[in-house]
Design goal:
The chain is of the alpha+beta class and 450 residues long. It has 11 helices and 14 strands.
C-alpha cells in the first residue's frame, strides 16, 4: 500500500489572491507575461530540443491570473525546498517518497509515482507513490513499450503530457491508471548524472478534468533532474563506502598476515635460542623474539578490530603482559588499562617500550624468588600515560643511560619516536626494608594518544 503518513512538505499557506492593480512594475510585468502565456494556445517553449509531447487540452484553462501566479510561485518554492532535502537525504526510499509527495502537491493532484526500470524483467516497477490503493509498491509494474505513456517517456527521454487518457488513441491506458480513474498524466525521465543511463520515470496523475501544460512539464522535468542528481550522489557515496570497506578488509588481511609472519619468526628465534651453546647468544635470541612478539600483538589487535587504524589500549596492553607472564614462572605480571582507542602508529612503539621495561624488571628487579610487576595504562584528555612498577631493588634511569645498554637505547629511541617522555618516579617502600631491596621502581611513559 502506498504511504499515508504526513507529508514532509506542508503546502504553502493560502492567501487572498492579489488584485491586478496596485502592483509594483516588476510584479505587474510578471503578471502580464503569465496572463499572455495562459491565454495563448498551449505551446512548447524549451531550450532542450527534446520537448514534451502535449495534446490539445479538452477545455481552456480557467485559472485566473492571480491564481496562476500563486500556483507557479508555489511550484518554485517546493522545488527549491526539495532540492535542499535531496542534498542531505541518504536513504533512497525516503528520497523517492518525498519526491512523490512534493510533486503531487506542486501539481495539485492526488496521485504520483516513481517507476524504476527492472532490467531482468524489462518492466517499469512502481517503487514509491502517493494516493494509490492496495499493495502496489514493488508489485505493480508497467511495460516499457512506446504505446504506454511511461514507456514512451522512458524510451525516448521526452517529457509526455496527456490531458485526456480516457479518449486517448495513441497510447493504451495502463490498468493501474484505469482502475483509479486517471484522466490526465505527465511522465518525465529520471536520468542520474553518474552514468547518464535511463533509470526510471517520474509520473503525476489526476482523475480530474483539466489540463497540464508545458510549464507543468518543465516543473516536473526539473524535479526529475534533482532526483537524478540525488540518486547519482547516493550511488557515488555507496561506491566510496564499498571501496573503503574493501580497503579496510585488505588492511585487516595484511595485518593478519604480518601477525602470523612475526609469530613464526618469533618461534624460530625461540627454537634457535633453546639450541644455542652460549648463554649470551641464547639471551640475545630470546630478547629479539620477545620484541618481535610485541609487534605481533599489535597487528593481532588491528586485524581483529573494527577500526584498522586503532587498537583498544586495554586489549592490546593486557594481552601483551599476559604473553610475557606466560614465559616467566617466578613473576606475577598484572595489567589494568582504559578501554580507549589508541592509534596504531603509537601502539607499535608503545608495545616495544612496555616489553623492554617489563623484561628488564623480570631480569633485574628481584632475586631468585621473583615478585610482582604492575602495568597500568590510561588515556585522558588526549594524553597517554603508561606505568610499569615493581617493588624490587630499584632502578637508576640516569645510570642506565650512562651505561649505553642496548635496551635503554631502544627505549629512549622509541619514546622520542612517539613524542613522549619517560621518568622514574620517587621510590616507595617495598617488601622489606632490608639491604638492597625494598626501594622499587615506577617508570612512567607519557605521550600524546593521537
Amino acid at each position: 500500500m502506498t504511504r499515508s503518513r504526513e507529508p514532509r512538505f506542508s503546502p504553502l499557506p493560502h492567501t487572498r489572491p492579489p488584485s491586478d492593480t496596485g502592483l509594483t512594475p516588476e510584479i505587474a510585468e510578471l503578471v502580464a507575461e503569465v496572463h499572455a502565456d495562459t491565454a495563448a494556445e498551449t505551446q512548447i517553449q524549451m531550450d532542450d530540443p527534446v520537448a514534451p509531447k502535449v495534446e490539445e487540452a479538452p477545455a481552456p484553462e480557467t485559472r485566473s491570473t492571480a491564481d496562476e501566479l500563486r500556483y507557479r510561485l508555489k511550484q518554485q518554492s517546493l522545488l527549491a525546498r526539495f532540492g535542499e532535502v535531496a542534498l542531505r537525504e541518504r536513504d533512497r526510499q525516503a528520497l523517492l517518497d518525498a519526491a512523490c509527495e512534493v510533486c503531487a502537491d506542486g501539481l495539485e493532484t492526488p496521485l504520483s509515482k516513481v517507476l524504476i526500470h527492472n532490467e531482468a524483467r524489462d518492466r517499469l516497477v512502481l517503487v514509491a507513490g502517493v494516493g494509490w490503493s492496495g499493495e502496489v509498491e514493488g508489485r505493480a509494474s508497467l511495460g516499457v513499450e512506446l504505446d504506454s505513456p511511461a514507456g514512451y517517456a522512458f524510451q525516448t527521454g521526452k517529457p509526455l503530457i496527456s490531458n485526456h487518457l480516457d479518449i486517448e488513441d495513441r497510447f493504451r491506458t495502463p490498468k493501474l491508471l484505469a482502475d483509479h480513474g486517471v484522466r490526465r498524466a505527465i511522465n518525465v525521465l529520471i536520468r542520474p548524472e553518474l552514468d547518464g543511463e535511463p533509470w526510471g520515470v517520474l509520473e503525476v496523475d489526476s482523475p480530474d478534468e483539466g489540463q497540464f501544460d508545458a510549464r507543468d512539464a518543465l516543473f516536473l522535468d526539473a524535479f526529475a533532474a534533482v532526483v537524478g542528481a540525488a540518486i547519482a550522489r547516493q550511488q557515488t557515496e555507496q561506491r566510496l563506502l564499498a571501496a573503503i570497506e574493501h580497503q579496510a578488509l585488505l588492511t585487516r588481511e595484511v595485518s593478519h598476515r604480518v601477525k602470523n609472519s612475526l609469530s613464526l619468526v618469533s618461534s624460530l628465534l625461540s627454537m634457535q635460542a633453546r639450541g644455542a651453546a652460549s648463554d649470551d647468544v641464547r639471551a640475545a635470541l630470546a630478547t629479539a623474539g620477545s620484541r618481535i612478539q610485541a609487534i605481533s600483538q599489535v597487528h593481532d589487535q588491528l586485524w581483529r578490530g573494527a577500526d584498522v587504524q586503532t587498537v583498544i589500549l586495554s586489549d592490546f596492553l593486557c594481552q601483551l603482559c599476559a604473553a610475557i607472564d606466560t614465559g616467566s614462572d617466578r613473576h606475577v605480571i598484572t595489567c589494568e588499562a582504559s578501554d580507549a582507542p589508541l592509534g596504531a602508529d603509537i601502539a607499535i612503539p608503545l608495545g616495544l617500550i612496555v616489553n623492554e621495561l617489563v623484561t628488564n624488571a623480570i631480569k633485574y628487579a628481584y632475586g631468585p624468588d621473583g615478585g610482582d610487576i604492575a602495568v597500568t595504562g590510561r588515556i585522558a584528555d588526549g594524553r597517554l600515560t603508561v606505568t610499569v612498577a615493581d617493588q624490587g631493588k630499584g632502578f637508576d634511569l640516569i645510570a642506565a643511560r650512562s651505561d649505553r645498554s642496548l635496551g635503554m637505547r631502544v627505549i629512549d629511541s622509541l619514546v622520542r619516536q612517539i613524542g613522549g617522555t619517560i621518568v622514574n618516579q620517587a621510590p616507595h617502600a617495598g617488601k622489606d626494608a632490608g639491604e638492597g631491596e625494598g626501594v622499587g621502581a615506577i617508570l612512567v611513559v607519557e605521550a600524546s594518544a593521537t
